[in-house]
Amino acid sequence: MQDLPQILKNYARARELMARNGNPTQWGNTFPREEVVREDIAEHRMMLLVDVQDGDERILAQFAVCSGEDPTYRQIDGAWLDDDAYVTIHRITSAGLVRHAARDCIEWTLKHYGNVRADTHPNNKAMQHVFESAGFARCGLIQLLDRPTDTTRIAYQRHEW
User: Fold this and answer.
1) In the chain, which end has fewer C-beta atoms inside a 10 angstrom radius, N or C?
2) Which among 155, 153, 157 is positioned nearest to 25, based on CA atoms?
3) What is the residue-wise DSSP string for the chain?
4) Nearest to 156 by CA among 94, 60, 92
5) Do residues 46 and 37 touch, judged by C-beta distance below 8 A?
6) Tens of pLDDT along 107-126?
7) 52 beta partners
8) DSSP one-letter string for 144-159
9) Across the strands, what pairs with 33?
10) What count of other Cβ atoms lies within 10 Å of the Cβ of residue 17?
11) Phi then psi for 96, rounded to 5 degrees?
């Protein structure tokens, strides 16, 4: 919880960056909401990629690893690679301090869980590139259940057999 202020600052930075790069609606001005971030921390879903510089720890990237079936992924216009148990990566963002931080988060998740699903906005070309360069298959389109508008997302999966 002591990292909450920096985590929130990183999400604010990500929202600004997405808006500047043609993707102003994926997270808008408020997503992820602070209560969602607090819940991620309380439920031990929030993961931090950190390093130490000059004796101080700094957050390089953050993301949520959610286990169990994601209700949003029940319906897909396309097909998942399999019906095996999986984890979902949500709310991934880099602090902008080092290159490839998001990819490193994804690789960590694959190493620890093996079967990973994720999604991103059709306008989020940077995240699409990260998933595809990390070997994820584009599986189709899903519709978010928790938003009133702008709900279409590209769904990805990678399964380390």
Assistant:
1) C
2) 153
3) -TTHHHHHHHHHHHHHHHHHTT--SSSTTTPSPHHHHHHHHHTT-EEEEEEEETTEEEEEEEEEEEES--GGGSS-EE--S--S--EEEEEEEE-SSSTTHHHHHHHHHHHHHSEEEEEE-TT-HHHHHHHHHTTPEEEEEEE-SS-SS--EEEEEEEE--
4) 92
5) yes
6) 999 999 999 999 999 999 99
7) 57
8) -SS-SS--EEEEEEEE
9) none
10) 14
11) 80, 15
Query: Where do we find the tokens 């990292």?
Result: 3
- The answer to whether 117 and 70 are in contact (CB under 8 A) is yes
Whether pLDDT at 150 is above 90: no
How is the beta sheet containing 56-67 ordered, strand by strand? 46-53, 56-67, 87-94, 115-120, 152-159, 137-143, 77-78
Retrieve residue 91's tokens.
Answer: 């709310």
Q: Is the whole-model pTM more than 0.70? A: yes
